[in-house]
Design brief:
Largest sheet: 5 strands, parallel
Shape: globular
Number of strands: 5
Radius of gyration: 17 Å
Helix content: 40-55%
Strand content: 15-25%
Structural class: alpha/beta
Strand order of the largest sheet: 3-2-1-4-5
Distance between the termini: 54 Å
Length: 161
């Protein structure tokens, strides 16, 4: 690894039509080594293979990661530390949503807990574990991708009365 090589992790890249996939493409084109992560290892590999076959620039590495699983987060941290000793860019794109337009009075709380475990606590846990590697970068960056789904007052995306 050269001293100037930049390393990125992008979470939640399970499909080639999503924001995370395009972020991976553009980072690789800028010369960044990208860890493309998805819960499904086959999806991660397929997306990385597609980007690598397009000669996107730098290597895109698939990595199976469920951000609600502390063991998988630790495996990612170990791989990054062993291979690079730093992390320059963390793109938190993984998320979970409940049914659009559900009512707060009748919302399925098990689904709500799953959404919070992924979107809030999983992202938070990942950040905490990877923070030492981000600090090793000297210019570490974190980007949190969001959407209207976080706005509970929005009738299309959030909980309504």
């Amino acid at each position: 690894m050269s001293e100037n090589e930049r390393i990125a992790v992008v979470t939640g890249v399970g499909r080639s039509q999503g924001i995370g996939f395009e972020v991976c493409r553009q980072l690789a084109a800028e010369g960044v080594t990208v860890f493309l992560t998805a819960r499904n290892p086959d999806a991660a590999k397929a997306q990385a293979d597609q980007l690598n076959s397009e000669n996107a620039g730098k290597e895109v590495r698939p990595f199976s990661l469920d951000i609600t699983n502390p063991d998988e987060i630790k495996q990612l941290d170990d791989e990054l530390d062993r291979s690079f000793g730093k992390l320059d860019i963390l793109i938190n794109n993984a998320a979970s949503v409940g049914p659009f337009g559900e009512k707060s009075a009748s919302a399925d709380l098990e689904v709500a807990v799953n959404v919070l475990n992924t979107t809030l606590f999983g992202t938070w846990r990942l950040f905490q574990v990877l923070l030492p590697l981000l600090r090793q970068s000297g210019a570490g960056r974190i980007v949190n991708v969001s959407s209207g789904a976080g706005s509970h007052g929005d009738e299309a995306f959030g909980l309504t009365h």
